[in-house]
Amino acid sequence: MVADDAFREFLSLAGQSGPLTKQPTNYGRKPIVAKALMATQSQIEETYNYMDQVFRAAYGEDADVSGAMFNGDFSLSLEQAQHAKHEYILTHLSVGPGKRVLDIGCGWGPLLRALQQHGATGLGITLSTKQAEACRRNGLDARVSDWKHSDRASLGQFDAIAGVGSLEAFCSKEEFLEGKQNEIYSRFFAFCHQLLRPGGRLFIQTMTWGKNAPSLHDISLEADKTSNEYIVALTEKFYPGCWLPSGESQIIDCASPYFKVVSSNSGRLDYMETIRQWNRRLRLNFSILIAMLRTLRYFLIDRNFRFKLMSLVQGCQYECFKREIMDHHRMVFERIGAADD
Predict the structure, then answer these.
(1) What is the pTM of this model?
(2) Disulfide check for 243: which of 31, 98, 176, 237 has CB 3.0–4.6 Å away?
(3) Measured in whole angstroms, how far is the alpha carbon of residue 207 from the centre of its chain?
(4) Using an 8 Å Cβ cutoff, are 220 and 230 in contact?
(5) pLDDT tens across 296-335, in order?
């Protein structure tokens, strides 16, 4: 049996699968009750700690699991497009030797590695213990920390800050329903403003809801299995505790007291190509199959694990971008105001 066949046979054990989060068509309302906060450490670990070995086997020790940058040239390899993204970020943040950069939601450290290669000093924070361990094991500076509770004095000052795919986890569905999403994003931008030196820049790469996102109250695993509502309900299982921004304008509005926009562009098509190339990697070799087999124990402790696993195969996130249920933005901001503002 070839590796691809073995991989499919393993996946058949998992049943059905899932996508990511949901759209605020009632943006600004505050209905029902809520107790959950932004994606908690345990929720982040449900996704990233469980899949740690799989992602590193498929994508390398510095696994980059955020959208790459093809700029329409889909002849590029995944590595070339991820490198292009890192160069884009570092160029727009004016990063060079001696600069100090904070990476919020650093993952397995791909941007930290790029900073290191450019002679800059990078510090990463993540809610995943496995990610922090992998970063430190590979000579990168990372710690387990939640920006909402970080001691600003211990972090120090930075020339630039990046958040590549982390904004998506800052607000839970419950917080959204309580009308807290704008407040959370405003707190985040205030946090970054306090850490940055005057004129410092902030890079945000994030998924947002797209023009075809379904109504919140229609999203359900009971919906037709070909519907947008069902796809979004499945995706939510893979990313517990996450609720996407409504769009680019919401992010800009929340940032405006602290930052001016330097540039913004959509990476939706690039993300679709990234997912296509990720999927090819997930079917390449037996080391990935072995890593997958080691995750089987999580079926015993996480009732949603089959959704997390199968969403990698059924392409729910890809379908969200294809149908424009989701969009994707790369945004560069520059700090405004004096040092003590």
Answers:
(1) 0.79
(2) 176
(3) 8
(4) yes
(5) 555 555 566 555 555 554 578 899 999 999 999 999 999 9
